[in-house]
Amino acid sequence: MNSYAVVIDVAAERDLDEIATYIAENDSIERALLVSANIERAISQLSAFPNRGPHPRELLEHGVRNFREIHYKPYRIIYRVVRDKVVVVLIADGRRDMRSLLARRLLSD
Fold it and tell me: Are strands 75-82 and 5-8 parallel, antiparallel or unpaired?
């Protein structure tokens, strides 16, 4: 079985930091650390199974099929597979307006 390198890009790293900060300020530092660790664990599993996630429906509506997603509820982790590498590009609370967020972050290039 091939193993893929997993990279979290700068914007997704910032997303994770913002999620942890929000949880720490509104719940507890312990909860923030737990959620961050669980998101990072879900991301690390992509090294063995990079194509397991479905294509985000909001991107399919635009004909975009080069991104996939996994979940650590309620968070959505959006990534793409590039050769032997998985690049995480966005981590967001799935209760947000994902259409606007995905359009702004991934379709504006």
Answer: unpaired
User: Which tens digits make up the pLDDT trace of 27-57?
Assistant: 999 999 999 999 999 999 999 999 999 999 9
Whole-number Å distance between alpha carbons of 96 and 37 = 21
Pairing of strands 68-72, 85-93: unpaired
Residue with tokens 């997303």, as numbered in its chain: 15
Q: pTM for the whole thing? A: 0.92
Buried b (16+ CB within 10 A) or exposed e, 64-87: eeebbbbebeebbbbbbbeeeebb
